[in-house]
Design goal:
Number of helices: 3
Largest sheet: 4 strands, antiparallel
Low-confidence stretches: none
Radius of gyration: 16 Å
Distance between the termini: 29 Å
Order of helices and strands: HEHEHEEEE
Mean pLDDT: 93
CATH topology: Alpha-Beta Plaits
Length: 99
């Protein structure tokens, strides 16, 4: 897989910011078919850090509905895969581009 296919985008939420500040853990949305070895290689190549640990989780799809003039429209949000990447102590990933 290509680097762009493995790492889709970083997840920037309050929870991921707390994890990155306290434990050097960063959250990424990754491709559904990517495995831990591919994720590790992609993060090390793209951000230039050494990865200590990776935890992955597949977030299940959700059904959503909304009310419109035409009635209730219901659909589904797709499932996706998330990876929590632990970086070596003393290193960090600049997700905001401030450095």
């Amino acid at each position: 897989m290509k680097l762009a296919d493995v790492l889709v985008k970083p997840i920037i939420t309050e929870k991921s910011n707390k994890l990155s500040e306290k434990r050097n853990v960063y959250a990424f949305r990754v491709g559904r078919k990517s495995n831990k070895l591919e994720i590790k290689k992609a993060v090390e190549d793209f951000y230039g850090v050494s990865v200590v640990n990776i935890n992955t989780v597949v977030v299940p799809s959700k059904s959503k509905s909304r009310f419109t003039k035409a009635g209730v429209i219901s659909g589904r949000k797709p499932a996706y895969k998330k990876a929590y990447v632990t970086v070596a102590e003393g290193e960090n990933i600049d997700l905001y581009g401030t450095l």
